[in-house]
Description:
- The protein is mainly alpha-helical.
- The chain has helices at residues 15-35, 43-50, 54-57, 59-71, 75-82, 84-104, 108-121, 125-136, 142-170, 175-178, 180-195, 209-228, 238-260, 274-304, 309-316, 321-333, 339-357, 366-381, 384-392, 400-438, 446-459, 463-496, 498-502, 510-517.
Amino acid sequence: MNPPKNASAPAPLTGWQFALGTFAVALATFMNVLDSSIANVAIPTLSGDLGVSVDEGTWVITLFAAANAVAIPLTGWLTQRVGQVKLFVAAILLFVVASAACGLAPNLPVLLAARIVQGAVAGPLVPLSQALLLSSFPREKSSSALSLWAMTATVGPIAGPALGGWITDNYNWSWIFYINVPVGLFAAAVIWALYRKRETPSRKLPVDKVGLMALIVWVGALQIMLDKGKDLDWFNSPVIWALTIVALVGFLFFVIWELTEARPIVDLRLFKGRNFLGGTIAISIAYAVFFANLVILPTWIQEYLGYRAVDAGLVTAPLGIFAVILAPVMGKIMPKSDVRVLATLAFLGFAGVFLMRSWYTTDIDPYTLVLPTLLQGIPMALFFTPLTAIILSGLPPEKIPAAAGLSNFARIFAGAAGTSLLSTIWNDRTIQHHSQLAEQTSVNNPAYVHALAGIQTTLHASLFKAQAFFETQLSAQASMLGLNDVFWLSAVIFVVIIPLIWITRPSKDGAKSAAGAGGH
Length: 520
């Protein structure tokens, strides 16, 4: 994604300019990362205010991620066409406008349209923030620059849910988007003032328009199919069949076109490499499961445990604590270690965390609820960078930007698709468990009759109210059992994909390549 190197590159920033410039670039990165998680805890409230189901509210997250994934492959071409600094500042300002539109949205369709735009313009922010930070630091301190960037990117998952919950409870969900306006304007102004004279050269290059359109078509059709499938009863609906056919035909056309195009928007030939193939599939599946659970867990906590949005945010916030603490340690361990071992430990750690969650109950205490989330920060620290090192190891330098872009596209889109799939699995398993439990609610079942009598006595309620109360409890239990199934499946998936790591052959340049391309 990086532009051609300028032979007369500007000197690193110094003094107050260095401090302010670094802060502004990090702030823009933080704003983008924060926005990918801040809405998670607001989904139940947002859905209620807009008069839609929680499942439909989840589209606010999945469509943002899908649009973001599609935009990432364009970053390299746009950088060379516009210039690094201009593109970065323009992306921030467009992100601010889209954020304001999200906050002002009167209904779900308008909000989703604004989120799609927001996700698309956010595409260049992550890779360009790395490039600008590296240009600000002296060459010998490039590792410090990337460590700072990684720290900023990791703090997002900690602050996002807690901040989103606090804003939703104390103000209005719209403010989770409005907060980007002053932050983005400040970052854009500072970056333009300090970096505009450090612009990279631009040149006119052709863009693979056919490949881009095919990418948009098949990704869009597939994501809409996944999001709407449950509501339309999947393949009993002609709409779902039509979307599936469009996605499949679009994907096949996209693959054939990109493999024969001289300047493809996505270089699919990279998948010929064993390291890139195994590493990209592994990180995409792992991130899909990780991100989907990050969306589902706060929803369940609010809907069925009765937690406020801010409390649900605080429950998920500890996720990044160990990730931040262990980030500097990882920088020292990686050069001396087989990154396949580190990635394997990460997957086993995630499996252990999800196995712990599969024993959750409806009367769970806060400590038991938070502990797995806190421990999840340990495998999270072992997750991104080692897998990125595997993906990029053995590639020539000129291929690394394209490889980083393609692997990030696959990972982010997998996160959106995984959220839709695991949400559907949770719903289906909940329905199945509800049906099984409801079989016991017969007047011929002495245990059921006795339970109703106990409820009537305890609550001083009529039979009708006792039955309604029992149904509420039954629904909560069915949802809990369905979620336990999702957690158990998540643990199994992390174990099953471990062999993907071991079909690769990491080389010594893997860690250096990962540092240069970023893995978040």
